[in-house]
């Protein structure tokens, strides 16, 4: 997914895309948007706010689905039952801690709000805790993307320096090899002429020595 391309296409409307995406889906777009925020393409606080609102409203909707149509939907989609039962077990065991952290619990993440709607948990209590949980989630994943963007920039900077040094060394090496090759060629051309000259001088010297 090309986040920068989406940002360029939609401008400020991209924040609405984030809100809708987090209403329906998970953290992928928030992480990559955090990286884009580090690059200056997005405002980090606005990004966090939109992800916060989208995630909060999405889970409120799933909670209401579980509250008003949970049994009917489970009868229609029985494959959901293991995930729902696991989420309800965690809710019973950990209560508030589970409501605050279920977004980070993979395997039951997609069933948790729906399952809690089928429990005796009050809508008001869930809404309050879900609001704080959505904020924690948005800050964590947008912040993780932002930090990853900083790390990528640092790595890119170090990589650029390494590449520059490497290219310089390669340039010196190639230049040296070409120079050596040129010198060898000149020596190969000059050697026969030098040998011929030496022979002529030797013959001339030998002739002079034979004269009385």
UniProtKB/TrEMBL annotation:
GO terms for cellular component: plasma membrane. The chain crosses the membrane at residues 13-37, 44-65, 127-147, 159-180. Residues 26-146 form the VTT domain. Keywords: Membrane, Transmembrane, Transmembrane helix. Pfam families: VTT_dom. InterPro entries: DedA_domain, VTT_dom. This is Membrane protein. It comes from Skermanella stibiiresistens SB22.
């Amino acid at each position: 997914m090309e986040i920068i391309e989406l940002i360029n296409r939609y401008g400020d409307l991209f924040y609405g895309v984030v809100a809708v995406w987090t209403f329906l889906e998970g953290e992928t777009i928030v992480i990559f948007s955090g990286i884009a925020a580090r690059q200056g393409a997005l405002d980090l606080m606005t990004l966090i706010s939109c992800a916060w609102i989208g995630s909060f409203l999405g889970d409120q909707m799933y909670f209401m689905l579980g509250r008003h149509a949970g049994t009917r939907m489970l009868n229609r989609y029985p494959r959901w039952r293991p995930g729902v039962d696991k989420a309800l077990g965690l809710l019973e065991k950990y209560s508030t801690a589970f409501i605050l952290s279920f977004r980070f619990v993979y395997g039951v993440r997609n069933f948790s709000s729906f399952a809690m709607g089928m429990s005796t948990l009050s809508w008001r209590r869930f809404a309050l805790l879900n609001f704080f949980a959505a904020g924690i989630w948005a800050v964590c994943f947008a912040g993780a993307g932002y930090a990853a963007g900083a790390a990528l920039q640092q790595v890119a900077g170090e990589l650029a320096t390494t590449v520059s040094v490497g290219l310089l060394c390669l340039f010196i090496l190639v230049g040296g090899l070409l120079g050596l090759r040129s010198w060898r060629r000149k020596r190969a051309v000059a050697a026969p002429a030098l040998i011929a000259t030496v022979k002529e001088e030797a013959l001339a010297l030998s002739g002079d020595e034979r004269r009385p």
